[in-house]
Amino acid sequence: MPLYQRTYSWTEKQLAQLWDDILEQAELVESGDKRSTHFLGSVVLAPSPLNEPTFPRWLVVDGQQRLTTLSLALAAIRDHVADSEPDEAERVDEEYLINKRRKGADRFRLLPTQADRPQYAAHILATPADQAAGDRVAAAYRFFRRKLVEANDPASPEDVFRIEQAITSRLTLVAVTAERGDNVHRIFESLNNTGLKLSQADLLRNYLFMRLPDRGELVYETYWLPLQDSLTNDELEQLMWLRLVLDGDDRVRRQDLYAAQQHRFERADADEDGIEAYIKELHRSCAHFRRILNPELESDAEVRACLRRLDAWQAAVTHPAVMLLFDRRERGELNAADMARALAYIESFLVRRMICRVPTNNLNRIFQAVPAQLPRGVPVAEGLHQLLSAENRFWPDDRELREKIRSAPFYQYGRWHQRKLVLQRLEESYGHPEPVDFAAAQLTIEHVMPQSPGEEWLRMLEEDAEPGETGDELHSRLQHTLGNLTLTAVNSELSNHPFERKQDLLRGSHLEMNRRIAATERWGAREILARADEIADLAVRLWPAPLTGAGRAERSRDWNMAHQVLAALPHGTWTSYGDLAAFIGSGAQAVGNHLAGTAGIVNAHRVLTSEGKVSGGFRWVSPDEEGTDVRARLRADGVHFTATGAADPAQRLTSDDLALLVSGTDGEDTSTPPSEAEADSSSRQQEAATAPLLLNSGSGEETRSERFFRQLSADDSVETVEAVRTLLAHWQDEGGWVGHGAGQVTTSAFLMLGKAGLPGQGIWPLTLYPGTGRGGTAEVVFQHLATREPFTERARRAEFLARLNALDGVDIPEGKLELRPGFRLSLLTVSGNQRLLHETLTWFRQQWDERSPR
Fold it and tell me: Rounded to 5 degrees, what are φ and ψ at 108?
């Protein structure tokens, strides 16, 4: 790569898109389908001044991000199979990554720009390296290691060598090779300066009407124009794709819609009759598709209720199956009651998998295959039930559902609106004579036993803890399980108060589930597990089970989640057996046994006891690592040790950190800034535009700012509250604005820069939260900053960290540059800290101004 090239900059968004394309091509490899490859674009090469006849070299003018990414993916494949198939690992290395007989820089098939070379070289040569620079390279490598572990999931198995073949033979590039003297930058500009592209629907529409020279005008006015008027262009494209799937093409991708439909017409030698028939079929199907998009158009009440729930779940992946049901109902093959039953199977399939933490990465394939695989000679609803119950579909049975409701951290999996819908459906199942209007109620998820328990809670938990288990460990194990969660409109009032105070508030709730919780005398492990069993009884009745005989592999799925999160551990971090167990809903002993007996687990040595010590039962499983000093390996991974020989507790990742590390958070919190949240934008903008701290709106209604300071005052000293007011005033003096979250658990204050009200246009360094019994916190959003210029550069985030760590009492480890660590707002009252934080935020704003003009 030439010196002038920017550093490697792909984020997880681009990596995830590429990975999806790779998996699609791997499926085509498996099926033997040779029709299509995936086009990655062009690579512009120029002769290198160092070129030799026997060793040709080229400068990469355009394409370095893709080439670097693919090389890192192949390095991850090599390392993934290194223990089990060392010969294959060596083959991948020598075919794609290195020049075996060369030394120095010439040893690398690809040589990135200078800033990225240390990290890239470390991963290609499989040697540890300091991750202070080139962190995007390290993050990309970790991404592929994690995804390869995920691909081992029995719910979605992918052979690693099919993935290799997809990368090396099914991802195609056009190489534009310049001659000496050519203006390579002009070539680059012409390739990348493209206008607005036509959509797949645009291309197919143009093709169709070019094939209708005689009837085009009549067909357009009669069928196409009504169709086009009733759907957006995106929805029309979805409908065109669905018609292909319903006709049995269960592997067509939406981005290949035009080519696939054109191929079908040409293969069938379609004339004007055939083209017109296709457009009539789209017109007929449109009525069904509109009912899916807007369930209120459905006349049958039971079917309408099922469609509403799928729509609220945002279950677009199920559209092929639901469209099939509409088609079969129109043909008279099932009535409304049968259709509602079939929709209930689909809902159960989604909900049970979500509760049991089955990965969603194969849902597209499952539902896209329904039209082609639905059993013949069986009533439609029964056939769908049978198809979804197949062994490789992983629809959890009653036993697994009950187990996961008791043990799995429900709050940390799935999307927040899906978790809320599960609790809402459970509440509705009580059949209360005066049910809650969920559409109007502002209900959010509440932890009955709080996430930040006070001493009174911990004392009670100590009474319930199993032998060898602390109250903190029991809390970590049960806090996010379904038995400890409910819905309420008074989250902030409930907060982390003792159970006796929560009882009074829950007793007055209109929700039956809350009145049942309030009727208990205490709220410890026994009560949480008893409620979990009650919920399990409801869930088994609400969501039908698969047919008996379906295979179960929940244990391997759980371990797969553990393997994924261990592969994603950032440099300079460790976790404990208890934290990992809480993350997957297992026990610490089971985790230890699994790690001790399973080869090939990335970063298994970074799982320590809760005291930060290497477990006495730890053993290297790989023969290549036998005899390796564990502490030396940990030091090479950036883990520090205290004077007592324990791993630095500041570098420990809790179960909550692990959940955030793998999938981010979309939970019941306010970590999303107000311009991107579900908060009412007009309310937020009004608050952002009014007087500095919005102390009183004058309307008689409490503003979010007022609520924030009321909650802050309830748990922090007067001095801390005044320090926060001063901090927010300073931020506004610096040209920032203060937004407040919707208050789903507590409210929050975001220190925002950028365009108010436009999603994705802003940046924020800190989010302030009122206390939950242990004082308010300032959350440092490194995870967010990693996707916003100019803080995509790790060095700049590291400088921000260093400036924050200069505050007395703040000591955030470098390993948490991938996460969202925090510090207590009470530290602002320490002498000199407020000045240092103001200076740091002024520096932050200057960095933003330099790279992103207002």
Answer: -95, 130
Please work out, in degrees rounded to the nearest 5, the angle formed at the alpha carbon of residue 456 by the alpha carbons of 455 and 462. Answer: 85
Higher pLDDT pick, 208 / 323: 323
Nearest to 592 by CA among 603, 602, 581: 581
Query: With left for phi above 0 and alpha for psi between -120 and 50, is residue 94 left, alpha or beta?
Result: alpha
DSSP letter for 196, please: P
Predicted local confidence at residue 97, as pLDDT: 94
**In 672-710, which positions are buried (b, 16+ CB within 10 angstroms) versus exposed (e)?**
bbbbbbebebebbbebbeeeebbeebeeeeebbbbbbbe
Q: What is the mean pLDDT of the chain?
A: 83
pLDDT top residue among 767 and 818: 767
pLDDT in tens, 635-655: 988 898 988 889 988 889 988
Residue in the structure block whose two tokens are 């490598």: 141
Question: CB of 345 within 8 A of CB of 388?
Answer: yes
Can you tell me the distance from the alpha carbon of 546 to that of 348, in angstroms, rounded to the nearest whole number?
Answer: 9
- Peptide bond preceding 433 in cis form (omega within 30 of 0): no
**According to DSSP H, which parts of 486-568 are helical?**
491-494, 499-507, 512-518, 525-542, 554-567
3 state DSSP class of 671: coil
Quick one: average pLDDT of 742-754? 74
pLDDT recorded at residue 608: 93
Per-residue tokens: 369? 């295959």
Ramachandran assignment for 404, one of left (phi > 0), alpha (psi -120 to 50 degrees), beta (any other): alpha
Residues forming a β-bridge with 447? 485
Q: Is the pLDDT of residue 132 over 70?
A: no
- The pLDDT tens digits of the residues spanning 495-530 come to 667 788 888 888 888 889 999 999 999 999 999 999
Whether the predicted model's global pTM rises above the 0.90 cut: no
Are 802 and 836 in contact by the 8 Å Cβ rule? The answer is: no
In one letter, which amino acid is 248?
A: G
CA distances from 754 to 635, 761, 803 (A): 40, 6, 22
